[in-house]
Amino acid sequence: MKFNIITLFPEMFHSPLSESILKRAQENNLIEITYHNLRDYAIDKHKTVDDTPYGGGKGMVLKVDVMDRAIRTIQSQVPSTQYPVRAILLTPQGKRLDQDKVRELVKYDNLILVCGHYEGFDERIREHLIDEEISIGDFVLTGGELPAMILVDAVSRMVPGVLSEGSSDEESFMQKNNDGEFLKEYPQYTRPEKYNGWDVPEILKSGNHAEIKKWRDRHRLS
């Protein structure tokens, strides 16, 4: 699976997406992450990517023509074996990212993630150049880079082979109960058995696997 990230600050991604599980996934060619500096698609000598908004107002707005060149150039470079391609805008107005959305996105071979900055986007970018908008919550960040990192991490974990087989089965939000509610991961303990007056629950030391399962199932709903 390939992630193409359009950003004004590609350096922000290098350490967070080059460690641990994501590092191994890239080394094993399970995922590929490519960064595209939006300024590379500006055609004036100043590499201008934003301008003042029509009608007045504070801040600067990312230009539709520059973003159009960036997205269409990336799309033209995607091999036919990596279709379909989905272009995603990271914005507070988008659909909330959850595990169901992650499962949906992992079905695509190629994602284009557009990171906003400054005051916002020319509305024509939303209307004509992207497939959907995604938000990580009801709050405002400096730009779309952090949401893009979170999306890449969440989706990458669902790519076959990235995690050990079965290791994510009982993680939070991976399963639902009969009422359609997401189950959370149950509490876990390890040695020492007693520490600072804090004890491991007796049920987990009982050896009664049926009762342990019941205990864990109860706590997955809490």
The first-level CATH class name of the largest domain: Alpha Beta
The CATH homologous superfamily name of the largest domain equals SPOUT methyltransferase, trefoil knot domain
Based on secondary structure, the structural category is alpha/beta
- How would a crystallographer describe the biggest sheet? 5 strands, parallel
Distance linking N and C termini: 34 Å
Helix percentage: 25-40%
Residue ranges: pLDDT <50 for 5 or more in a row? Answer: none
CATH architecture of the largest domain: 3-Layer(aba) Sandwich
Q: What is the helix/strand order?
A: EHEEEHEHEEHEHEEH
Question: What Rg do the Cα atoms give?
Answer: 22 Å
Strand line-up in the sheet with most strands = 2-1-6-5-8
Give the strand tally. Answer: 10
Number of helices, where a helix is a run of at least 4 consecutive DSSP H or I residues: 6
Give a concise summary:
The protein is of the alpha/beta class. It has helices at residues 20-27, 64-76, 99-105, 123-128, 145-156, 209-219; strands at residues 2-7, 32-37, 50-51, 61-62, 85-96, 110-115, 120-121, 132-135, 194-195, 198-199. It has two domains: 2-156, SPOUT methyltransferase, trefoil knot domain (Alpha/beta knot, 3-Layer(aba) Sandwich), CATH 3.40.1280.10; 169-222, tRNA(m1g37)methyltransferase, domain 2 (Trp Operon Repressor, Chain A), CATH 1.10.1270.20.
